[in-house]
Write a structure and sequence with these properties.
With about 170 residues, the chain is α+β, with helices and mostly antiparallel strands. Helix content is about 20%, strand content about 25%. The protein is built from 4 helices and 10 strands. It has a 4-stranded antiparallel beta sheet with strand order 2-3-4-5, with no helix packed on it. The protein has a two-stranded parallel sheet with strand order 1-10. Strands 6-7 form a two-stranded antiparallel ribbon. β6 and β7 form a beta hairpin. α1 runs antiparallel to α4. It starts with a strand and ends with a helix.
Length: about 170
Amino acid sequence: MESRTKNSYQTFVQDFTRLDILVSCPGCAKQALVKTGSSVNEKIEEPEVKVTCLHCGYNKKLTDKPSAVLYSSNPKKIAGNYFVIGGAVDPFFHLPLWLIAEIDEHVLWAYNHQHLNFLQTHIEAKLRERNGQERFNSSLGSRLPKWMTSKKNRELLLRKINELRDK
């Protein structure tokens, strides 16, 4: 059966940062949650962002995280938080993601199960339709690396995604 996807070019990686993000706890190395307190369509409010671990009780708010020096010149110094989107760490606390797997020299990662489901749908699709969305070059579907969208890696990637889902 021919599988196809139509929404890969209307979804952005930031859509998955508004949901709970699964991370490795800095206290016990088990699964912890970064909670943003937002839904997909809401703006993330920094005071609501926190990381919690149900295993060891680790609990920290983003407002408790020391700020980094973002700009420094004599005598001016600007401090604040910076966000990393699009790597194998959570955007807020920069903790390693829970859903991560090494594949040869590459790294497969996902923020949460919804992100993992998106990746699975996109990777297993033999036909990926843009539906007139050519200008959405910043969409997640258009930004995935070639090794993830290559037919030769499809079976291996889908197997790794299933392993991550069972983790």
